[in-house]
Structure formats: C-alpha cells, structure tokens
Write a structure and sequence with these properties.
8 strands, 8-stranded parallel barrel, about 40% helix, globular, binds phosphoenolpyruvate, alpha/beta
Length: about 250
C-alpha cells in the first residue's frame, strides 16, 4: 500500500514572514490528516523558519533543489548536509524549471538524487514532456530517457525512498491540467519502467502528478491507480487551498 504524498512547491514565492504565517495557519487545518504525507518546499531563505514553525506537527519540510557536492567552491549552492541540518525530509530535483530555464541535464539530476539518498534525504525526482514533445508523440520516449538518466545512480535497495513526480510541462502553471486518463497513461508507463528497473521496489515507489492541481480536480486525479500524490505549485501558496488538496478524500464522499 503506497502512502499518498501531497507536496507544496512554493518556487520563488513568500518572504520569511509570509512563509511562517502560512505554516502557522496551515498546520491546524491538516492536523487530523494521518493517511497521507504532507510536505512543504519553501524557498531556501525560509526553510529554517518554516521548519521551526512546523516543529511538533506532522508536516514535513522539503528543499526545492540541492547541489550534489558536500561542500566546496560552488557559489550560491546548497549541499545535502546543509539540508539535513535544516531538517529537510525531502528535496525536489529535476523540476522542469531547473531543466529548461537553468539547463540541468538528467546526469546532473542523477548526481543530486544519489547525494540526497547518501545523506538520508528523500529525492522527489521530476520528469515530464513539453507540449512539442507530446504533439510529436515522443512523450514515452522523453519520460524513459529522463527516468533512465535521472535514476541512473539509484540502487535497488534505495529505490523505495525515491518519489517520482510526473509533471507535463504544458500543464505547469498554465491552468491546463492533464485529464485523469492522460495522467494515468503516463503514470502506468512510469510504473512499468520502475518495475522493470527496480523489481518489487518499483511497486512501492510513489508517483505524484503535478500540473495545475487544484482543490477541485485533485480527487479525480488521485482516484487513478498509479497516481499516488500531487506536487502542487500555484494552488499551494494559499493555506486553505493547499489544505483542500491535502483533504482530497473528503471531496469524493
Ligand atoms: C510545479 O511547479 O511543480 C507545479 C505543478 O506547478 P502548478 O501547480 O502551478 O502547475
């Protein structure tokens, strides 16, 4: 049984004060939710303060990025031990904005995922095709290439600690959510690739959907057999909205 995982990716939003106000308003709204993992990824400057505000709650902290080296001359970067110090349980790697705006290749994503695992931080590895790639019927080829490249350094015994986020680039921040059928088709392909690569661990790995998830579309997406959670951008910036997403099970009743 895979435990659902609902994660907020705030991207480059919220000052420390705004982030702490969110955490204080949000935690009580989800205090009784025990059947799902709840994760918030604030920008780096707010990690310590949000971590402190969430102490004693079951909401987990995540970073939005990491550098694979432990330390060194890497101006502007943040290392896995620094994330451990901050209490991060997860870190997002390979987000499409990192791949497309900052030119990060899957081989670099693989190094980040491996470095996180070596330090006990679970990676959320993002994959997803652009609209152009979908229209050229290259979706599965792109996903396979990103999975193979980004998970190249994950050992079978580590695989269950890795979360995959399927985020079609055309659905991110556009308001154009993939239909549950389109998302499930990609998730099923990803599941089958994970099973082939990691055996039984491929069944245990959670696959999140990301791309314009909102309180009013999350429950139909979560009803699909291979959708185990959501990675949420825009709709996670408001405490009531993200709480509505976390409480998705109440919507289908
Ligand atoms: C994201 O950036 O991970 C994302 C899914 O954004 P949005 O929910 O705004 O589409």
């Amino acid at each position: 049984m895979r435990k659902p995982i609902l994660a907020a990716n705030w991207k480059m939003h919220k000052t420390i004060g705004e982030a702490v106000a969110f955490a204080k308003a949000f935690a009580p709204l989800v205090a009784d939710v025990t059947g799902a993992e709840i994760v918030i990824a604030p920008p780096f400057p707010a990690l310590a303060a949000v971590g402190a505000a969430l102490r004693g709650t079951h909401v987990l902290l995540a970073a939005q990025n990491v550098h694979p080296e432990k330390q060194g001359a890497f101006t502007g970067e943040v290392s896995p031990p620094m994330l451990v110090d901050l209490g991060c349980a997860y870190a997002i790697v390979g987000h499409s904005e990192r791949r497309h705006i900052f030119g990060e290749a899957s081989a670099f994503v693989a190094r980040k995922a491996a470095a996180l695992l070596a330090h006990g931080v679970r990676p959320i590895v993002c994959v997803g095709e652009t609209l152009e790639e979908r229209e050229a019927k290259r979706t599965f080829a792109v996903l396979e290439e990103q999975l193979r490249g980004s998970l190249a350094e994950v050992a079978i015994e580590q695989a269950a600690d890795v979360v995959i986020a399927y985020e079609p680039v055309w659905a991110i921040g556009t308001g154009r959510t993939a239909t549950p059928a389109i998302a499930q088709e990609a998730h099923a392909m990803i599941r089958s690739w994970l099973q082939t690569s990691f055996g039984a661990a491929g069944d245990a790995m959670r696959i999140q959907y990301g791309g314009s998830v909102k309180p009013d579309n999350v429950s139909v997406l979560m009803a699909e057999p291979d959708i185990d959670g959501a990675l949420v951008g825009g709709a996670s910036l408001d405490a009531a909205s993200f709480a509505g997403i976390v409480r998705y099970q109440e919507k289908s009743k």
